[in-house]
Amino acid sequence: MKRLLSIALLSFAATTAFAAADEFTLTIKDHAFEPKEITIPAGKKIKLLVVNKDATPAEFESKPLGREKVIAGNSTGTVNIGPLKPGRYPFVEEYHENDAAAQGTIVVK
């Protein structure tokens, strides 16, 4: 019984570690992205968690990626990306896209 429990715990730990490696977090606060640049691996699907710490809605948009997601105030949205070829893929917080702080880049290597 102990052996079965140990195998189950190891499998869960391996699955959790794999999921964490494929998730990246982008935060919006005061309509600014943090970090402004994220590097992700080429040829892999990733999950981008966009955490909006502002009280108002925000919109993650990337025309090169073909992604658009409205995130309610004080909540988190998920944007699935990839697999992508190496390159630079800009994104904006559409409601404030003319502010430099509301612009960023996903770098794929």
Automatic annotation (TrEMBL):
Pfam family, one: Cupredoxin_1
Compartments where located: Periplasm
Location of the EfeO-type cupredoxin-like domain: 4-108
Predominant location: periplasm
Signal peptide (from-to): 1-19
Keywords: Signal
GO cellular-component term (any): periplasmic space
SUPFAM superfamilies, A to Z: Cupredoxins
Matches recorded under InterPro entries: Cupredoxin (IPR008972), EfeO_Cupredoxin (IPR028096)
Full protein name: EfeO-type cupredoxin-like domain-containing protein
